[in-house]
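Morning!

This is the sequence you dropped in the shared folder:
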Amino acid sequence: MEGLLEDIKENTERTARNTDPKSSFYILVSTNKSRIVTKYNPLIQLDKSRKHEMALVNLETYYSFPNIDATNNNFRYSPNAGTSWSDINVPEGCYEVADINEYLQRIMKENGHHDDTNETAPITLEPNTNTLKSVLKIAEPYRVDLTPENSIRTVLGFESRVYANGYNESENIVNIMNVTSLRVTSDVIASSYANGSTENVIYSFFPNVGPGFKIIEVPTNLIYLPVTLDTISRIETKLTDQNGKLVNLRGEDLAIRFHIREV
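The structure's back. Tokens below.
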């Protein structure tokens, strides 16, 4: 009889704990950079007798991160078989192969390196949609030097060397989309696993819009991860690519909303 009473008491207490109202609240962090450090005063105090967990509720920003920047924007060519060289630095932005070719054609024409009589360009760049590579068509006596450290070769799939006249197809597949996944990290959650290593990734996705459009990401199913702190004085949030590199937002606003709840 005594054992039965103990079981009833334990079940009653468990039911009371499960039916107690659980506290929860939202946290909004925002800035125009991909690393957000938010300090709280007063501090966020969590009930030490309870466990807490956090999930990303929504994220808003613009698809502004470039595939061409100062690290890979150089196109060097020679109009006289290597006697002299001209450098074209493609402005930072989001480009397709055709866009890069259009810019190169315009600058070469401004430099006087264009056949005005036949309206043809001595150097053209185009994609090969069958092989997923890019093609440089170079007329004699022009040359293209893709050896500079910040050469555009890394986007177009070419090796680090000088290319002569004729039909030149890149040795590698075009890497026009350098960001294949976006990750949101937070330093107040327990580590998750990414490619076999532990990281504070709370959410990962890829935008369903193209460059220039607004990204509004709202998870269908919220994934909660344990919060490791009882007192939160600051939260560091990052938006990175698939390699953990901070995404270049180019000054566009980023807003992320989290939900913290008692377990």
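Headline: Helices lie at 2-19, 97-110, 153-156.

More detail when I'm at my desk.
O.
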